[in-house]
Amino acid sequence: MIRIFKHYISRWSLLLVLCETSAFLASVYFGVELRFFWAAELDEVHRAELLPRALFFAAVMLISMTATGRYQRLMRQGMTEEALSIGLSFIIGLVATSVLFYALPDLFIGRGAFIYAWFIALGLVLLIRVAFYQFIIEPSALQRRILIYGSGQKAGMVERMIDQDPGDRVIVGFWSPHNSPNVVANHLIYSDERLLVWCQEHHISEVVVAADHGVSMEEMQQLLDCKSNRILVLDLPQFFEREERLILMEALGTEWWIAHSDGIASNLVQEVMKKSFDILISLLLLFTLWPIMLVTALLIVIEGRGKEPVFYRQARVGYGGKIFHVIKFRSMRADAEKDGPVWAQKNDNRVTRVGRVIRNTRIDELPQFINVLRGEMSLVGPRPERPEFVELLQQQIPYYSERHRVKPGITGWAQIKYGYGASVEDAVEKLKYDLYYIKNHTLFFDLLVLIHSVEVVLFGKGADAPRKDV
C-alpha cells in the first residue's frame, strides 16, 4: 500500500491504472488509423489533434472503471466474472462518452473511429488483466503476512475483521506479550526468540500492535528493531484506517485525535480550491440535469394534485454547529411528521409513489446544489443531521461533534461505505467513516467519493436502507 494525497492505494492497483491508461490512449490512435486505413494517411497536424481526444477518452474510461470498483481491490473471482465486470464498466463508459461527445463536440473522433477505439480498448484491457494475474505477479506476492502483537480483545477485533474479508491479508499468528489475556483461540505464539528474528524467519511483512495494556519499553525496542529492518509496524488505529478507511474510535485516546487530525487544520489554498470545485461542479450539474428536475417537479405536482409543495425545507446542523435549511424534492406526504420527528424506516409508508422512485435514484437530493451554491454545504462531506438527533447523538457518542468541523455534503464517505442508518448504533458506525474523511479530506479524496457515488446511484447500493430524513 502507498499513500497518495492522504489516501491509501494498493501498488498493484496503481500499476494497473498506469497500464490501462496507456491502453486507452493507444486504442484511440489505433482506432483512427484503422478507420482511415484505406482512405488517407493522417498528417502530423491531425495526429497532434488526437492527443486531447485520447486523453478525454482515457479519463472517461478510467472513471467508469473506478466507479464500478475495478481498481478498488485485486481480482478474487475467476476471469469470467472479471471479464463481465469489465464489460459492464465499458458499457457505462460507452454511454457516458457518447453523451459527452454531444456536449463537447470538439473532442469527437468520429463514430467509426470511436467504435474501433472502444473495441480495441476492451480487448487490450482484458489482455492486460490476464497477463497481470497470470504472468506479472505471483499469487503469493499479493499476500501480506501479518503478525498481530497481542492476544486480547484488541487482537480479537483484528481477527474478526480479517476473517470477514481476508483479501490479500494472512494472519500468521498472535504474539502473546507477557501477562496478556488470551482471547484469540488460534495461532498463539510463545517464543523466547527476539521478535525481529522470529519475523524474519517467518517472512512477516507487517506487525500490528494490538496489545490491550500497551507495551513495555523492552517490547517497544523490539518493535523498533523490526521497523528499522523494513518490517512495517502499525498501531491499531493506523491499521484500521488503512485497511477499512475508517477511524476506530474504540482504540483512540484524546491525545491521538489531537496529534493526528491534521485534516482539520485550516488551509486557505485548499479551502479556495474546494469551494471553487463545489461551485463549478454544482453549476455544471444543474445545467445538465435541469430537465430531470423539471420532470420530477411536474410529477410531484400531479401526484399531490397541486395542493402539496414540490420542495421541502428542513433544519439541519452544518459547519460549526450552525443551523441551515436543506432543500430537497418532497418524497413523503406533507403531514409525514405530524406526530413529531422520527427516524425513517425501510419501506416507510409515508413515502409517496414518486418519492420512492426519486429517493432510490437520489433525484430528491438534486436541489441541494442550491445549498452548495449558498455556501451552506459542500459536494462531499458528512451527511447533515437534524438538530433533534444531533443533540441526542452528541450525548451518547464520543467525537460526534467533530463532524461539524467541515461542511456537510450531498454525498460522503460514510454514505458510500455504510449507507443510511436508523439508530444510534448505525450513527456510531457511520461516524467512523466521517472521522476518516475529516482527518484525510483532500480534493483528490473528494473526486474519489464522487466517482464511487456513481456506483451507488447506478446499482442502488444503500437505496433500500432506512433513511433518517423526510
TrEMBL record:
Gene3D superfamilies: NAD(P)-binding Rossmann-like Domain. It is a multi-pass membrane protein. GO terms for biological process: polysaccharide biosynthetic process. The keyword Transmembrane applies. GO terms for molecular function: phosphotransferase activity, for other substituted phosphate groups. Belongs to the bacterial sugar transferase family. It is found in: Membrane. This is Sugar transferase. Residues 274-458 form the Bacterial sugar transferase domain. Keywords: Membrane, Transferase, Transmembrane, Transmembrane helix. It comes from the Bacteria.
